[in-house]
Known about the structure:
The chain is of the alpha+beta class. About 40% of the residues lie in helices and about 25% in strands.
Amino acid sequence: MRKLAWLVFLLVCACVRLSAGEAGAYRHVVIFEFKEGTAADKIREIEAAFAELPRKIKAVKSFEWGKNVSPENLNPKLTHCYVLTFASQEEIEKGYLHHPAHEAFVGLIKPHLEKAVVVDYVAQVPEK
């Protein structure tokens, strides 16, 4: 658990770099561990489905994702990280979480998900 907390901390710190000039932006960080035995084709389908959400849900201001390539190897089972930006907490709550496209995505991934870690934060920009 301590390693997981450290990994989440490092990911959030890395995401802060995205916030330059966007103080107050609401970030939604999602990290997945897939169940052992999940087929590579299914994982690619899930990756593509998540990447489609910003085109379907206008509340998403920005989106990026990548696979865990950390040389620290603190938690190699958490393989996929997604970072979405919203204008506010209200936007994620009203315009994303219960959107039919997001709910369909959850239905797609849920049977293949061993663990999901989610961290939301409001971007802070250091004073100069």
